[in-house]
Amino acid sequence: MAAKYSNQSRYAVAVDCIVFGYDGQNLKILLIKRALTPLKGRWSLMGGFVAKNESADQAASRILASLTGLTDIYQEQFYTFTNPDRDTQERTVSIAYFSLIDIKKYREILSDAYQAEWFSIKDFPNLIFDHEDMVRMAKKRLQYKATSHAILFELLPDKFTLPLLQSLFEDVFETGFDKGNFSRKMLSTGLLQKQRDKDKTGSKKGAYFYKLDRKNYQQNLHKILKLVPNPNNIL
Prior knowledge:
This protein has helices at 56-68, 103-106, 131-146, 162-173, 179-188, and strands at 12-22, 27-33, 43-44, 46-49, 74-81, 92-102, 117-120, 160-161, 192-199, 207-212. The protein is of the alpha+beta class. The protein has two domains: 12-146, Nucleoside Triphosphate Pyrophosphohydrolase, CATH 3.90.79.10; 159-230, Arc Repressor Mutant, subunit A. Strands 1, 2, 3, 4, 5, 6 and 7 form a seven-stranded mixed beta sheet that branches. A three-stranded antiparallel beta sheet has the order 8-10-9.
């Protein structure tokens, strides 16, 4: 049996998941009621400890699935929180992830065992430990990544309209876009495939549905930059 490192501290390693969703009007985060002491019953991000036989990525996927029933969703590691006093119970390092899902697609399979609930990113309850810092940093990371990758489409249904897409971009980047310019620039990226049917829930004229051209978007990611004002100032 190999000898352990001598004179080294031992402490827990956890993962915390910031799950973003979009309901057609607002960017939201998914929170649960904490099941452990201390602070049992307080609102929390979804999290848990990394097991001895798994990676942080595997732990994040396992924990997200067990707490919400969600699997096979976009997930990205973005920061490690190491403040010695961040957890009042014991020294815990937390590796943070953000995930992106279509709220309507997963609404019916969310586990209610932990009272999971969606809250607006602009108005959510006080969270335990440093989870509010995690949310703020995750949103900044989402904004930064979305300037060069088509990840915001993960928040939308398979078919969507340009008005819905514009609303999403405006909410994520907290800015307004001219309707004509946004549509023209987005269509010029080559990322969208126009469908024959329309969404007529808002008007008789309706708006055409589009789909993301996933085969083409890798070659056109840089064109997303043109949609976002001053992308280099986000981080």
